[in-house]
Design a protein that fits this description.
This protein is an all-alpha fold and about 725 residues long. Helix content is about 60%, strand content about 0%. The chain has 30 helices and no strands. The protein is elongated and about 85 Å long.
């Protein structure tokens, strides 16, 4: 069922991508293709390829290859080109899926192709290729076929003399001919996209010298042929623009994710920038080739291709979005010795290749440069930094387990939290925001509250508006504590209470998702945006209700996301976490006061109704219930949060200081079960002693006792 669902997803994404292109008007789809081949395209009219408003950005050889298309540049070309691009994407996915480093399990082999096709369809380079009508998929496919097939032939060549079809002189001649053909593919790719010429030295360094020579020769033949046919354009491209630098949009545009573009965005120009490039580009290429040779000799041919392809993205004068596909195959590299660390690199690559860079970093000026250069950063990491495992490493096939009691990988948590908040902001901002619908729901809420005698918002709002200190305190509280307190608690849980952190963050995630569903299904105008009722917006001042957009405020985010109140919901989550952490009466009293005070503030500032607060309580309750159900399904314990509460039932304030309570079997008179305290950042592994006895001194290895085997609490 999962396999069928994945194939349906891949098919749906492909259909959606094709439909998104074909349903556009002719002058808005495949804009680059028709700018080149249209009635006034640079490939149709006489003159230079690199002049005019829609200047050609490819190599002269690419222009020579595309020239025949000018005769077929009619309405039907868009359909043919779109489906041709679909076939190229499918071919890239099939080649990559078959090149996974072995041994590959049957399940992985079944899931690899639909997963690869889905990721390709979602990636920004493929989406741009569909929209613009670019040819960037073709060089990638040519290189992958030449490189991967050549690696297989190299293996057969080494084993041919012992027998089989490649034994003897004829077999060796066939292998040599195949090697030359594979070099031809890479040479043609280099003539279309010069940065891929970095694969020629890779061929040489991995022993495929015939292929390297034929690849370099093919590139020279194609380039010289284009030079003979288009001498002026060849001079413009190779000499004046130094292999295309400066063609198309400005080289310092964010879409250019090459090292050259990043240096220009950083403010370096002229001789200093050229000198720095002259040092960095060869260094990146040399290091990437060394790493790629190592992975190729280890049998990880696809990873080797990804490493060199990422170096090509970095070194290219311009690496536009449709040319950045080389980063995606780097997802096959395995990183980390724990199972919990294995997801960091693939999640990072998927996020970089499918989302805008601004979605990966907070909206803070200090992080802006990272967001602008997210793809370049991923390419640099893949080509030069990330220590991908070799197949001979013990952790390749048998990583250390990261159980439910261990501390999650910090980088993975930060990535998921950031992207989760970005998705939260996106959904909240794009939820239905019809003014009449939201105000109608507001009248429904007020009618229900009057019927239940719960309509206290107006009186609290008037009290805050006429009491200066209360108004200022409420506004500060509303804009500050909503994010500050949960972040502080999550940070403390991660550092000192890893098992409870896992459970609490999962519950918070479920509650937030339910809150987003509420924003979408029930858009609600808060009291401050209800016309004619006398509510005062204490934080933003009076709103111009005659303006359908209510002025500048509603341009920032959807103001009709009031039900449920996540201010109240998140504050209740904080109170539950505090109750689980400690039995200190003062701290528990403060924890209980926090959601009550938050409920008062959201009503006093006219941002929520009382029933919104009830909705916040409901989603958090459902979030904790969903977390417990998930824990049971995953087999990590019947009551993860409940177990964490029992952990600190005795001396929890000591645990907060770093001392773990004593452990003992349940019901045995030895105190409560103790979750291990790991102040030094080490991890707690799975096993029968992961919960009880983990804080005691380690015992020598040996078979478990009958008591251990029979203790249900240990298995829990």
């Amino acid at each position: 069922m999962l396999l069928a669902g994945l194939w349906l997803l891949a098919l749906a994404l492909a259909v959606r991508q094709a439909a998104a292109v074909l349903r556009l008007p002719r002058d808005e789809r495949l804009v680059d293709l028709f700018a080149w081949t249209g009635d006034n395209g640079v490939l149709r009219v006489h003159g230079s390829l690199y002049d005019g408003d829609a200047a050609f950005t490819g190599t002269p050889f690419a222009g020579l290859v595309l020239k025949p298309l000018t005769r077929a540049a009619e309405q039907g070309l868009g359909v043919v080109w779109t489906f041709g691009t679909l076939l190229l994407v499918a071919a890239v996915g099939a080649v990559a899926a078959r090149a996974l480093p072995g041994p590959v399990s049957r399940r992985t082999a079944l899931f690899a192709l639909p997963a690869a096709l889905s990721l390709l369809a979602l990636s920004v380079p493929v989406r741009n290729t569909f929209h613009l009508g670019q040819t960037s998929i073709l060089p990638v496919l040519l290189v992958l076929v030449g490189w991967l097939a050549g690696g297989a032939d190299r293996h057969r060549e080494r084993h041919g003399p012992a027998g089989g079809p490649f034994a003897g002189p004829r077999g060796q001649a066939a292998v040599a001919l195949a090697g030359k053909a594979q070099g031809v593919l890479i040479g043609v790719a280099g003539a279309l996209q010069p940065a891929t010429l970095l694969f020629v030295p890779l061929l040489w360094l991995t022993g495929r010298r015939r292929a390297a020579v034929s690849g370099a020769g093919t590139f020279l033949i194609c380039t010289l042929a284009a030079w003979a046919a288009l001498p002026d354009d060849s001079w413009t491209y190779w000499v004046h623009h130094v292999a295309g630098a400066g063609l198309g949009d400005a080289a310092d545009a964010t879409a250019n994710q090459s090292l050259h573009g990043a240096l220009l965005r950083a403010g370096l120009h002229g001789a200093p920038e050229v000198a720095l490039l002259a040092v960095l580009v060869p260094a990146v290429g040399w290091l990437a080739l060394r790493r790629a040779v190592r992975y190729a000799r280890d049998g990880q041919l696809l990873l080797a291709a990804a490493v060199v392809g990422c170096a090509a993205v970095v070194a290219s004068p311009t690496a536009w979005q449709h040319q950045q596909l080389w980063v995606l195959p780097a997802i096959v590299g395995r990183v980390g010795r724990r199972t919990g660390d294995r997801l960091v690199w693939p999640v990072f690559v998927v996020m970089v290749m499918t989302l805008d860079g601004s979605a990966l970093v907070p909206k803070i000026a200090a992080f802006g440069m990272l967001g602008e250069n997210a793809v370049l950063l991923a390419a640099l990491l893949a080509s030069c930094v990330v220590p991908f495992l070799l197949r001979e490493a013990p952790a390749w096939a048998a990583p250390q387990p990261s159980g439910p009691l261990s501390r999650p990988n910090l980088m993975l948590e930060l990535l998921l939290i950031r992207v989760g908040y970005w998705a939260y902001s996106y959904v909240r901002g794009h939820a239905p925001d019809s003014r009449s619908l939201a105000e109608g729901h507001g009248h429904q809420i007020l009618t229900a509250e009057r019927f239940l005698h719960l309509d206290v918002e107006h009186g609290l709002n008037k009290l805050a508006a006429r009491t200066e200190w209360l108004r200022e305190a409420g506004d500060t509280y509303y804009t500050t504590f909503h994010f500050l307190v949960p972040i502080v608690l999550l940070g403390f849980l991660y550092v000192r209470r890893a098992p409870l952190y896992r459970a609490a963050r999962t519950a918070l995630s479920f509650a937030t998702l339910l809150g987003l569903a509420g924003f979408w299904l029930y858009p609600l105008a808060p009291p401050r945006l209800m016309p004619g009722l006398g509510y005062i917006d204490t934080a933003h001042g009076p709103q111009d209700l005659s303006d359908p957009d209510f002025g500048a405020l509603t341009q920032l985010s959807n103001q009709y996301a009031a039900m449920p109140s996540l201010h109240v919901g998140w504050s209740l989550w904080c109170a539950v976490v505090v109750f689980l952490l400690t039995r200190n009466r003062l701290l528990r009293a403060l924890g209980a006061l926090y959601p009550l005070l938050t409920t008062f503030v959201v009503m006093a500032t006219a941002n929520h109704y009382l029933l919104d607060a009830v909705g916040g309580v409901a989603v958090v309750t459902a979030g904790f219930y969903g977390q417990r159900r998930l824990a049971r399904i995953r087999g990590t314990g019947k009551r993860t949060v409940g177990r964490a509460a029992d952990t600190f039932a005795d001396g929890s304030d000591r645990g907060a200081a770093g001392a773990a309570p004593s452990a003992g079997p349940p019901g045995g008179g030895g105190g409560t079960q103790a979750l291990p305290d790991v102040p030094d950042g080490s991890n707690v592994t799975d096993g029968p002693d992961a919960v009880s006895g983990a804080a005691s001194a380690p015992s020598p290895p040996g078979p478990p006792s009958s008591a251990d085997r029979g203790a249900p609490a240990r298995r829990d």
